[in-house]
Amino acid sequence: MNSVSVGSTSISSSTYAIADRGTALIVGPTAQVESLNGALDGTYDSNSQLYTVDCHTRSLSSFPNVTFTIGDTVFILTPLQYLWITGDQSTGCICYSVFSPSDSSDSNGNLFWILGDYFLYRYYSVFDILNNRVDFATSISYDWMPTVDSSLFPTSSTTTEISSIPNRGNSTVHRPAMHFSLFALIVMVATRYMNSF
């Protein structure tokens, strides 16, 4: 993974990452995740071991996008895509960042990110075994936003006001149609099957 950034703030560059459907959150090296959540004005909660953010007095537009760059392609998560909101008006809402710290490392000691469900819900993953690579394509669920309690983000006129993906300079914003990723997966599986004879 080439880089992770919050708004215009660079969090990491040239780091390792894996995609894992068995991990709900997006997990990264502790120092990098601390910096990322710091850029979101997050506060570490030792009970949940997650970072909370203030969505009771801040507007939605005050939260920056988080961008993962893989190759020359950017993958953007908007605030409602990286905030986990629990509770309701009667119990009180808590807003968590889905970026969780963990110093997981490979057999060579390299720290890595785990792109879990909060990333993979927005981007399909295509595992190309023949070429030893993973490709990502924008999910049909990319633009879906959760219903947000009316007590949150008080100065926001709408909860989807920043859900569009901005142009990121010369980088390619990866938004191909879903049928392309499914077609690629079908071709890959069919090729593998035919080569087994």
TrEMBL record:
InterPro entries: Aspartic_peptidase_A1 (IPR001461), PEPTIDASE_A1 (IPR033121), Peptidase_aspartic_dom_sf (IPR021109). Belongs to the peptidase A1 family. PROSITE patterns: PEPTIDASE_A1 (PS51767). It comes from the Eukaryota. GO terms for molecular function: aspartic-type endopeptidase activity. PANTHER family: BETA-SITE APP-CLEAVING ENZYME, ISOFORM A-RELATED (PTHR47966:SF51). GO terms for cellular component: lysosome. This is Peptidase A1 domain-containing protein. GO terms for biological process: proteolysis. It comes from Rotaria magnacalcarata. Gene3D superfamilies: Acid Proteases. Residues 1-137 form the Peptidase A1 domain. Transmembrane segments: none annotated.
